[in-house]
Write a structure and sequence with these properties.
The structure holds two protein chains of two kinds. Chain A is α/β, with parallel strands linked by helices. Chain A has two domains: 9-271, 2-Layer Sandwich (Aconitase, domain 3); 278-425, Aconitase, domain 3, CATH 3.30.499. Chain A contains 15 helices and 18 strands. In chain A, the strands form five sheets. Chain A has a five-stranded parallel beta sheet with strand order 4-3-2-5-6. In chain A, strands 16-15-14-17-18 form a five-stranded parallel beta sheet. In chain A, helix 2 (39-48) crosses helix 5 (143-152), helix 6 (177-188) runs parallel beside helix 7 (210-218) and helix 11 (312-322) packs across helix 13. The longest helix of chain A is centred in the N-terminal third of the chain and has 16 residues, at 73-88. Chain B has helices at residues 16-19, 30-34, 45-48, 69-76, 89-98, 106-111, 143-150, 154-164; strands at 2-9, 54-56, 81-84, 102-104, 117-121, 126-129, 134-137. Chain B is globular and about 45 Å long. Classes of the chains: A alpha/beta, B alpha/beta. The interface between A and B is large, with 46 and 36 residues.
C-alpha cells in the first residue's frame, strides 16, 4: 500500500501500518502549541476536561507573541492567564518576553530544537504548517482541539489527499521562496489545496535553503492546505545538528520518504528558474501579479518580518538592499526580527545599524502588525507592502487599508523607492542618477 | 433539530479576519466578539441579525486564521447555520467543536438569495427556501456530530457522555 510522506507520518503516529485518504485516525502528538490569542480559551476548556495536568510538560509549548509586549489591558490579562497556567503546569517551553529563546512561535520552535523530521505537531495557530519544512507533519487547529490535546497528547485527523509539487532547477537570482509560494497560491487559488497536503519534491528542493522551505510551508494554509511538507535531505540534517543537537545526537527523529508510486490527486511541475518576483494584491493571497506587469502603486508603509519572513536570512537580505540607501521620505519601514535570537544576531552582524541608518525602525520580536495587533496599524486608504502572509480586508488595520504581500527584496526596494518595485528598479535609478 | 431564519448572503473566501477582526481578539468573551462580527465586510450585520438567522456564502468559508473566536462570534450573534459549498478546514473543525451548525451545499449557496426565509433540517440535510419555494439537499451530519451541536459544542457533548457514564 503506497503512501505519501504525510500519510506515512500519520500512520506511524496512529500505530497503523498504513492509512488511506479519508480515513479517520487518532494520532499521538510530539508537540502541542498555543499562543496568547488561542491559549486563554483553551485553558478554560482544559479545566472543563477535568484533566489532572498536561500530558507532558516538555511537549506543551506556549508562546506569547501576538499582542506582546502587551498592547493593552485586555492583552495583559490574557498573558497573565497563560503565564499562570504555564507556571501551574510547570511547562518547560513557555517563553516570556526577554527570554533569549523567545519570539514569534513559528520562528522559535524550529530554532529552539523542538521540531524534528517525522514529528506530528498541532498548534492553535494556522501557520503551524511551517514545520513541514523539516519533514514533520504539522497543522493548525482551534482552541478546543488544543485543550484536548494538552490533556491527552493526541487528536483525531482525517488522512489527507496530497498534491505533489515537483520542483526543477533553481530560482533566479533575487527570487526567493516567498515568490515561489505566492506564485503557487496564485496558480491554484486560496482553496486550491483545501483539506490536502502540499508535498514538495524534485531535484529543485536541494537548491532551496531551510529558510526558504520554512517560508514556503508557512503559507500552505493560504492555499487552504492541511499541511506543507519537504523531504529530509542533507540541509535538513545540518539544520537539525545546529538547532536540535540533542535530538540529533539521540537519533530522536525519523525520516519518512514518499513511496515512488504514492498516489497524488494532482501533480504540478514547476521550473524554479521561471518563477518571477511576485506580489499578492489586496485582498487575497491568490491575487498575484508579476512585478513589472502593473502600473505604479505608491505606498505608505513597509513591514519586514513575521513567521513567514522574520528569520536571520531575511534580515540579511533586507540589509544588503538597504545598505547605503534611505527609506523614501513619507514612507515608514518597520522591521520585526522573528525572535530574540535573530534580533541579537542581527545586532552583532551590524544589520540593525544598517536599518537604523536607512531610517527603518526595528521592533521587538512580535507578530504585531501582521494581524493588525499593534506596532504599525494602517489608517483608511493607506497601502503597505509586507513580507507577512495575509492581505485580507482589515488584516493590518482599517478595513479601507491595503496590504500587498511580497518577498523581502521587493519589500526593501519598495521602501526605498516609495512604490512597489524590485531591486532591479533600484539599480536602474542609480544608473539614471549617474 | 432544525434551523429557520432570514438569510445573510456573502461571497467566496469569507475569511476569519472579516468574521472577527484580530483587533478584537484581546477578549474571548462571546458577547464582546458578537458585537464586531462581520463588521469589516458588512457594518450593518450585527444590527440586522436576529436569533435563528442563517448565513449563506460562497466557497472556502472561514479561510485564514485558526481562531475559534470566528465560529464563536457567529454563533453568539444568533446565527443558527452557515451554508456554503466548502469550508476552510480549521474553521470546519472549530465550528463543530463550538456547536455551530454548518452545511456543505453548492446549489443552495448559489440559488438562495439575500433576505430569503430558509429552513434547514439537520437530520435529513434538507434545505428549503420558503421565499422561492425551492429545496436543496446537503449531506446530513452523522448522529454524533448532531449531538455535539445540540450539546452546544464538544465540551458540552463530553459532559453529557460523562453524566451518562
Amino acid at each position: 500500500m503506497s503512501m505519501t510522506m504525510t500519510q506515512k507520518i500519520l500512520a506511524r503516529h496512529a500505530g497503523l501500518d498504513h492509512v488511506v485518504p479519508g480515513q479517520l485516525i487518532e494520532a499521538k502528538l510530539d508537540l502541542v502549541l498555543g499562543n496568547d490569542v488561542t491559549t486563554p480559551p483553551a485553558i478554560d476548556v482544559f479545566h472543563q476536561t477535568c484533566a489532572c495536568g498536561v500530558f507532558d510538560k516538555s511537549k506543551v509549548v506556549i508562546v506569547p507573541d501576538h499582542f506582546t509586549p502587551n498592547k493593552d489591558i485586555k492583552s495583559a490579562e490574557h498573558c497573565m492567564k497563560i503565564r499562570r497556567f504555564a507556571k501551574e503546569q510547570d511547562l518547560l517551553n513557555y517563553y516570556e518576553i526577554g527570554d533569549p529563546k523567545m519570539g514569534v512561535e513559528h520562528v522559535i520552535l524550529p530554532e529552539n530544537g523542538l521540531v524534528a523530521p517525522g514529528d506530528a505537531i498541532i498548534g492553535a495557530d494556522s501557520h503551524t504548517c511551517t514545520y513541514g519544512a523539516l519533514g514533520a507533519f504539522a497543522t493548525g487547529v482551534g482552541s478546543t482541539d488544543l485543550a484536548c490535546a494538552m490533556a491527552t497528547g493526541q487528536t483525531w485527523f482525517r488522512v489527507p489527499e496530497a498534491i505533489q509539487f515537483v520542483l526543477n532547477g533553481s530560482l533566479s537570482k533575487g527570487v526567493t521562496g516567498k515568490d515561489l509560494i505566492l506564485h503557487i497560491i496564485g496558480m491554484i487559488g486560496v482553496d486550491g489545496a483545501l483539506y490536502e497536503s502540499m508535498e514538495f519534491t524534485g531535484p529543485g528542493v536541494s537548491t532551496l535553503s531551510m529558510s526558504d522551505r520554512l517560508t514556503i510551508c508557512n503559507m500552505a494554509i493560504e492555499a487552504g492546505g492541511k499541511n506543507g511538507i519537504f523531504p529530509v535531505d542533507e540541509q535538513t540534517i545540518e539544520y537539525l545538528k545546529t538547532y536540535a543537537a540533542d535530538r540529533y545526537a539521540a537519533n530522536d527523529f525519523e525520516v519518512f520518504e514518499a513511496d515512488k508510486d504514492a498516489s497524488y490527486i494532482r501533480t504540478m511541475v514547476i521550473e524554479l528558474s521561471e518563477v518571477p518576483l511576485t506580489v499578492a494584491f489586496p485582498h487575497l493571497p491568490d491575487n498575484t501579479k508579476v512585478l513589472g506587469t502593473f502600473g505604479r502603486v505608491d505606498i505608505d508603509q513597509v513591514v519586514i518580518g513575521s513567521c513567514t519572513n522574520g528569520r536571520l536570512e531575511d534580515l540579511r537580505l533586507a540589509a544588503s538592499i538597504f545598505k547605503g540607501q534611505k527609506v523614501k521620505k513619507g514612507v515608514r519601514c518597520i522591521i520585526l526580527p522573528g525572535s530574540q535570537r535573530v534580533w541579537l544576531a542581527a545586532l552583532k552582524e551590524g544589520l540593525l545599524e544598517v536599518f537604523a541608518e536607512s531610517n527603518c525602525v526595528v521592533s521587538a520580536a512580535t507578530c504585531g502588525p501582521c494581524l493588525g495587533g499593534h506596532m504599525g496599524i494602517l489608517a483608511s486608504g493607506e497601502r503597505c507592502v509586507s513580507t507577512t502572509n495575509r492581505n485580507f480586508v482589515g488584516r493590518m488595520g482599517h478595513p479601507g487599508s491595503e496590504v500587498y504581500l511580497s518577498g523581502v527584496p521587493v519589500a526593501a526596494a519598495s521602501a526605498i523607492l516609495g512604490y512597489i518595485a524590485g531591486p532591479d528598479d533600484l539599480r536602474d535609478r542609480a544608473k539614471e542618477a549617474k | 433539530m432544525n434551523a429557520k431564519g432570514k438569510v445573510f448572503k456573502y461571497g467566496a473566501n469569507v475569511d476569519t479576519d472579516v468574521i472577527i477582526p484580530a483587533r478584537y481578539l484581546n477578549t474571548a468573551d462571546p458577547k464582546e466578539l458578537a458585537k464586531h462580527c462581520m463588521e469589516d465586510i458588512d457594518e450593518t450585520f450585527v444590527n440586522r441579525v436576529s436569533v435563528g438567522d442563517i448565513i449563506v456564502a460562497g466557497p472556502n468559508f472561514g479561510c485564514g486564521s485558526s481562531r475559534e473566536h470566528a465560529p464563536v462570534a457567529i454563533k453568539a450573534c444568533g446565527i443558527s447555520c452557515v451554508i456554503a459549498p466548502s469550508f476552510a478546514r480549521i474553521f470546519y473543525r472549530n465550528a463543530i467543536n463550538m456547536g455551530l451548525a454548518i452545511m456543505e451545499c453548492k446549489e443552495a449557496s448559489e440559488k438562495i438569495n439575500d433576505g430569503d426565509e430558509v429552513e434547514v433540517d439537520f437530520g435529513t440535510g434538507l434545505i428549503r427556501d420558503l421565499t422561492q419555494g425551492t429545496e436543496f439537499t446537503a449531506n446530513p451530519f452523522p448522529e454524533f456530530i448532531r449531538k455535539i451541536i445540540e450539546a452546544d459544542g464538544l465540551v458540552g457533548y463530553i459532559a453529557t457522555i460523562a453524566q451518562k457514564a
